[in-house]
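Why does residue order matter? Because the sequence determines the fold. Keep that principle in mind as you read this record.
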Amino acid sequence: MKIAIIGAGAAGVMAAITAKRLNKDLYIDIFDINNLIGKKILASGNGRCNISNTTITQDNYIGENPSFVNQALKEFDFKAFENFCKSIGLILDIKDSSKVYPLSNEAKSVVLLLEKELENLQINQILETKIEKVIKKEDSFILKSEDKEFKDYDKVLISSGLQAAPQLNSTEDGIDIATSFNHSFNPTYPSLVGLQTDFEFKSKLQGVKKEATVTLYIDKQKEKEITGDILFTKYGVSGFAILDISQYAVYALSLYQDVAISINLFPTLTKNELLGIIETLFKTIPKSDAIDALTGVVSKKLAMVLLDINNINKDIKSADINAKQLRAIINTLTNMRFKIDGTQGFKHAEASGGGIRTDEVDNKTFESKLCKNLYFAGEVLDIVGNRGGFNLHFAWASGFLVGKSISKL
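Structure:
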């Protein structure tokens, strides 16, 4: 039996290894547009490779039908993944945060060991080859690149991902192939990405970083709240808390909903506690410029913007700040609101949302319900995970289920 796998990322490689281990008689070709496998694995975790997570549930995923992931997570949980890693000689470093990295702390070691296993199993790698079209004639498939044809495949897996990180040659060719077999898809969007805002003073805050609580509002209704690092940028906001909340924000943007966020820069204090701290500060140094006094609690850039936002004279002294102005400053520090009007795009996104609709795919085998012996795995499906190793784990898990299925005659 001859198998074609389009896309040598985590899902495709896992499917190839699993299938060949279960059925030594398979002939498997794995195609990739890049000159080596696992380009996105190499980029994961800033090169450290946040490879999985020990606590994974449906709640860590977004899509039209997040429950689609349940069978894959059940059959290929973290313990199963850990055992797979041991089988290729990869030792894991499990953090207290539940995030999982290779003990080597290098993504390169993950890719190297996967590559060695492909070689050991005699899985044929056809690299620097972009598959543009798949045709089914009777019971076999033909794959077409720009200048070649690859024939007589019994089964085909599309695991070529989506458009996140186009600098790694990411494309949406998998969707194009799927639609040629009458599959439909939900619009794709960048996920785990910086957000653009309409904030008038964003350029003045560029570079300010703070632990904060970010609250997401969709159509003026509170939707999500996340605490973590935020970073003000020339285009809007970034940082871990923003990347996390971006998944929900950008999904709403893709549906043309009104999206806004509120930032509380002092989430561990009540408004009254913060008010008391700043009141005491101003009374302690009454002759100081208010901007200089505020640098006792915030950065100077932020202190200047606080006065700008609230139309307070920049040269005002601490002693001259009245109660109304002080309340306005406190409100800004604990409820800085602005509208989200865009993202930094696929180039800066860690993942893509949207993709092939999961109700057209069998959740136990990941086989197409519309075309026998055509399979999908990984990011090309309308499933996107939270930051923290969840996207890679779904790629491994979905690849494992496909591998089991395609190994059978």
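The longest helix spans residues 390-406.
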